[in-house]
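User: Predict the complex.
Assistant: Input components as received:
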Amino acid sequence: MTLALVRLDDRYVHGQVVVGWGQALAVQRILLVDDAVRAAPWEQELYRLGVPSDVELEFASVAEADCRVRVLAAAPERVIVLVGDVATLVRVCSGAAAITQVNIGGLHSAPGRRERLPYVFLTPDEAESLARLGRGGIEVTAQDVPSARRVPVAEFA
Amino acid sequence: MSEQLRGIIVSHAAVAAALVEAVGQITGERDALVAVSNDGCSLESLGRRVEQAVGSGPAVVFVDLPGGSCLQASASYMRTHANVAVITGVNLAMLIDFVYHRDADPAAAARRAVDRGVKATQAFAR
């Protein structure tokens, strides 16, 4: 099991992920799961600019993610899996038994969402989806940076 | 060029606002720069902040880091707006020079700002 972190973060690759979590967990690879980014080489190049040269960054569509997560979970590299929305997180978790914990790192304000934590805004449906993941046996916690408190899903969803 | 460039600084936390204030204190120029913070923003909402800050005129967007949400939002905006250029690694020296040279086109102004910014970065050690 080398999935160092499975993170929901709508900013994907940014300082908290690369510097905060990447260094704390000695990460060697980041898998970014998003259909639009997977199809946009130009956007991919921008994301690569934010990643240290000793960290591999790869991109997968949601459909490709099931297979890639299973492969990476069995590989020796330490990996962060990044998804940008609750639906994708649920989909990825359902396809990979190796995922036992998920980190809610940042989901920002949008129509229909209510603030649950300063960095977590959820619609009622999104909150229920995360709570259901928790009831299904996956440990769901919110934590934006490694030094912050891990907030159990029951406290925000 | 008939319209002067506007400078937009996009940063984490309050770095952009502090740079705008510092440039104002040093040069007296108060209308050339606009600060945008990524605080509390998704990529989408940060893109809207950048769009509002740029307005309709030509602009150079100064981003703090060469990667991350500030660059992602700014470069995505630039991709669909030909009168906008983006540079990374903003520093005070390049901004001070920029406010006095806003008659260029965005690409030329961006190149000049990078040149001034790089030249201002030096190491002094014994």
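Chain B has one domain: 6-118.
Let me know if you want any component modeled separately.
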